[in-house]
Each structure stands twice: as C-alpha cells, then as structure tokens.
C-alpha cells in the first residue's frame, strides 16, 4: 500500500498515530485495570517507544494497530487493528487482531466496532485467509469480544506464550481464529 489507511465506522475513526496521542496513550498504558492482562504496565518511555513502533508499521505497510478516536467527540480512546504475530508458536506466522481501549470508554462497544472494521479490512482488502487473536485465560472480556467477532477457540490450540518466561502466570494463552468466509 502506498499510503496509510484510515478506516471509519459510524462512530469511530481508526487512523495513523499523531504526536498528540502520546500523552493519552501513556496514561492508558499506566492504568492497572487496562493492563491487568499484560505482564506489566508501561513507563512513559516504553509507551512512547511502542507508539513509535506502531506508527512506523502503519507508515511502512499502510495498516496495523491504528489509533482509535470517537468522531467529533474524543480524539483518542485507544488502539485497534492488525499486527503480524511472528513469535515461535504452532500457528505463526499469522496476523493477529488486537485492541486496547482506555477505561473510560469501556462498555460502549467501541472495541467491537473498531475490531469488526479492522477484521473486514483484513479479509476484504488484504485478502487474509485467517485472523487470530489470543489472550490470557483470565481475560474473559476479550474472549467474549473474540466470540462476538465470530472467532472460535479449540482448546487444543492454546499455547504458552514464548515471550514470557516459563512459570510466569500469564504465559498460558488461549487462541481464537476466524477464517475468511468464501461463500
């Protein structure tokens, strides 16, 4: 793709990252509830580094984990989109759908709306055959969202995340998949 893609739904815009996103992104990444199913909260420097990596990927490929805004209401509520899963696991390489939404915006179906747009983009524009998502077993909210997106889980596909050390309580992960509808 020559230029970064922006996706729009009825309420949301998934767009490339802006410098103004750094502060609310850092606040979200430091929130213990938002980060409850991640190994650690991020420092400001780690958050800025992650934002730069996400922005660079969109610049290079045209797509990725986009910044999400509520159109004409809130300029940044989190991120959502697609990301290459390249770590060593039986299902990789793959394209993962992921999201992280700031706590004040939970319960409004923003993550579902954004993820549905990203998933449609992956299947319709990128021509992906399959999209995966994964999380810790305790992250029931994300698992419910995966199911709402039409993703399914086979417990035989669950895995230990290789980027977390053996014995880490968040190493076990559940895997959800969705294949492109060819009918």
Mind explaining what this structure looks like?
- Keywords: Transferase.
- Residues 12-181 form the N-acetyltransferase domain.
- One of its GO terms (molecular function) is acyltransferase activity, transferring groups other than amino-acyl groups.
- This is GNAT family acetyltransferase.
- With 183 residues, this protein is of the alpha+beta class.
- The chain has a single domain (7-179), classed as Aminopeptidase, CATH 3.40.630.30.
- The chain has four helices and nine strands, in the order E-E-H-H-E-E-E-H-E-H-E-E-E.
- It has helices at residues 22-30, 44-61, 110-124, 140-148, and strands at 7-8, 12-15, 65-70, 74-85, 94-101, 130-135, 152-153, 159-160, 172-179.
- Strands 1-2-3-4-5 form a five-stranded antiparallel β-sheet. Strands 6, 7, 8 and 9 form a four-stranded antiparallel β-sheet that branches.
- Helix 1 (22-30) crosses helix 2.
- The longest helix is centred in the first third of the chain and has 18 residues, at 44-61.
- The protein is globular, with a radius of gyration of 16 Å.
Task: Reconstruct the topology from this structure.
Blueprint: E1 7-8, E2 12-15, H1 22-30, H2 44-61, E3 65-70, E4 74-85, E5 94-101, H3 110-124, E6 130-135, H4 140-148, E7 152-153, E8 159-160, E9 172-179
Antiparallel strand pairs: 1-2, 2-3, 3-4, 4-5, 6-9, 7-9, 8-9
GO molecular function, one term: acyltransferase activity, transferring groups other than amino-acyl groups
Organism: Spirosoma montaniterrae
Keywords: Transferase
């Amino acid at each position: 793709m020559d230029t970064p893609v922006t996706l729009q739904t009825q309420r949301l815009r998934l767009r490339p990252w802006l410098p103004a996103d750094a502060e609310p992104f850092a606040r979200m990444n430091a929130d213990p509830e938002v980060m409850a199913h991640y190994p650690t909260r991020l420092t400001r420097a780690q958050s800025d580094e992650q934002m730069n990596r996400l922005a660079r990927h969109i610049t290079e490929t045209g797509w990725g984990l986009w910044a999400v805004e509520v159109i004409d209401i809130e300029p940044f509520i989190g991120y959502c989109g697609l990301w290459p899963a390249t770590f060593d696991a039986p299902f990789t390489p793959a394209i993962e759908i992921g999201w992280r939404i700031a706590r004040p915006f939970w319960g409004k179906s923003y993550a579902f709306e954004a993820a549905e747009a990203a998933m449609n983009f992956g299947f319709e524009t990128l021509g992906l055959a399959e999209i995966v998502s994964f999380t810790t077993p305790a992250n029931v909210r994300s698992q419910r969202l995966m199911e709402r997106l039409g993703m399914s889980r086979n417990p035989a596909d669950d895995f230990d995340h290789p980027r977390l050390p053996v014995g880490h309580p968040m190493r076990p992960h559940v895997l959800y998949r969705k294949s492109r509808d060819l009918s």
